[in-house]
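Internal tracking record. Fields below are filled automatically when a chain is submitted to the structure queue. Please do not edit lines marked as system-generated. If the sequence contains nonstandard residues, flag them in the REMARKS field before resubmitting.
Queue: standard
Priority: normal
Entity type: single polypeptide chain
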Amino acid sequence: MELGVVGKPNVGKSTFFAASTLAPAQIASYPFTTIHPNRGIAYVRKPCPHVDLGRACDPHNSPCQDGTRLVPVELLDVAGLVPRAHEGRGLGNQFLNDLRQASALIHIVDGTGGTDFEGNPVAPGAHDPLEDVKFLEEELAHWIAGILRRNWEKEARKADLEEVPAERVLHGRLTGLGFTEVQIHVSLRDTVLDPKMARWSYEDLVRLARSLRRHGKPMILAANKADLMTREQLEQIGRAEGYRVVPTAAEYELALRRAAKAGLIAYEPGAAAFEVLEPAKLSPAQTKALDQIAQFLKDRRTTGVQACIEEAVTKLLGLIVVYPVEDEQKWTDKQGNVLPDAFLVPQGSTAVDVAFKVHTELGKHFIRAIDGRTKMVVGHNHVVRDGDILKVVAKA
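SYSTEM-GENERATED OUTPUT FOLLOWS
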C-alpha cells in the first residue's frame, strides 16, 4: 500500500517525507529540489495484542515498541507539480506517472500562503493555499482524462457496437493506475454521461476523471508550516471543502526524529512532548530550537506529521489491522513466534479476504477461520474487526 506525497514545489514535501520515514531526501528552499521520486517506509501505530496475551511478541513485518505495533506503509515523494503539468510543464509528466499505484495522496500545502503557483517565495499571505488545492485537483483530472482519451473514439465505437459495458472498457484502460472495478463503477454512477461512449467529449472524460480521482485516489491536506501560520490562516485552510485537513510542522518533526535517533532526546512520533536526555551535548542553537518546538507542542499537542499519515490510512482509506496466526490458542506461527505479522485490510473485509491477503492459495482453499480472541469458528463471510487475531484453516 502506497501513499503519494504531492504538492507544488517548495512547500515542504521532501521535509515531510524525511520526517515521516527518516529516509534520505534532498531538501532545500527552492523549486524542483526533488527530481527523482524518493521512497521510504512510514508507520501506523496500533496497540499490540501481545499486551492482552501477557507474552512478548516476535514481529516480522511490523516492529513493536513498548506495546505499540508499527505497521508499515510505503511513502512516495514525487517532483513538484506546477499548473499545466499534464501538458508537460515543469516535471509534470514524470510527477504524474510516478503516482500510478498510489492508493491515496497526501497533498502538502504551504499554509502560510508564502509561495506562488510555481513554488517561488512570496510575502506570507500573498497566495491563497486553497487555490493550490483546486489546481492540483484539475491537474490530476486532466492527467487521468488524457490517459482515457488515447484512441478513445475508435475503441468506444467498437465497444458500443459490441455492447461492451463501460466498466469493462475503463477497467482495461485504468488497471495500470490502480483503479478497481468498484471505484470505476461508483465513478460512472456519479457522472452523468451519454449511454453511447463514442459520444463522450474530452470534457465528459474530465468530469469522469474528477470522480475517479475522488474515489480511487482520495486526498488528505497537510497544511504545512503550521509553526508559522496564524490562527486566521489555520481557519481559512480548514474550510477546504470535502477534505480532511491536518496542520503540520514537518521541519519540527524532522528535527525531533533526528534528535531522538542521535540519542539526544526521548521522543515517540506523534507524541505531545519530548524529554531532553543529553542537555550537555546540545549546542546553544540546538537548545533554542528544541525550546521553540517544546512551546509549539505545548500549544498544538502535535507536529501533525504522524497524525496525517494515520488519518490517511485509517480514515481516508478505511484500513484496519489484522494479525493472522497458525495457533489460535497461543497466537503463534508454526515456529512459535508470537503475533509475527500484521496486515492492513479495508474495513468490511471478511475472513476469506484476510486469507487471500496472507497467500493466494490460502484464500483459494479456505475452509473456515477461528477467532483468536473468542476461539469461535467463523466462515467465509465473517467480517473482521480492527485488532482481530485470526487462524485460517484451508485444504491441504
